[in-house]
Amino acid sequence: MDRTYSTQTLDNHLTEQVAPTVRATLREELRSELRAATAKQRRRAMFYAASGVAALYCGAALALAIELVLALGLPGWGAALVTAVLLAAAALFLRGAARPRADAKLPPFPDS
Questions:
Q1: What is d(CA 69, CA 12) in angstroms, rounded to the nearest whole number?
Q2: Which of 3, 8, 62, 78 has the fewest CB atoms in 10 Å of its CB?
Q3: Which residues, 6 or more positions from 89, have their beta carbon under 8 angstroms from its beta carbon?
Q4: Which of 46, 66, 65, 42 is nearest to 54 (CA)?
Q5: DSSP string covering 8-26, please?
Q6: Nearby residues of 39 by Cβ (< 8 Å), 6 or more positions away
Q7: Residue 102 DSSP symbol
Q8: Helix (H, G, I), strand (E, B) or coil at 43
Q9: pLDDT tens, 36-57?
């Protein structure tokens, strides 16, 4: 019986000494993994943002080109009006395409 008690005491002491070290090691490992994943996501987000800016300028240049072509046959205000209507129609179409349909089955959100 005395041997069992000493083994349990030894186990308790060992657990008390090892547990903080294991926690600290795991915490540091998780932090380093999180830093690496965050750096990758940050880089990817910067490329998406740059892509969006380039697309915005491309769209503006395209709108100007359309307006200049229309201005050959229409007054300037008429060309601007037609271009604005075309851009509004494109915006409505894209907004409708982005909305989920009522009949479409969406996958459930994962639990966070």
A1: 84
A2: 3
A3: none
A4: 46
A5: HHHHHHHHHHHHHHHHHHH
A6: none
A7: S
A8: helix
A9: 888 888 888 889 899 988 988 9
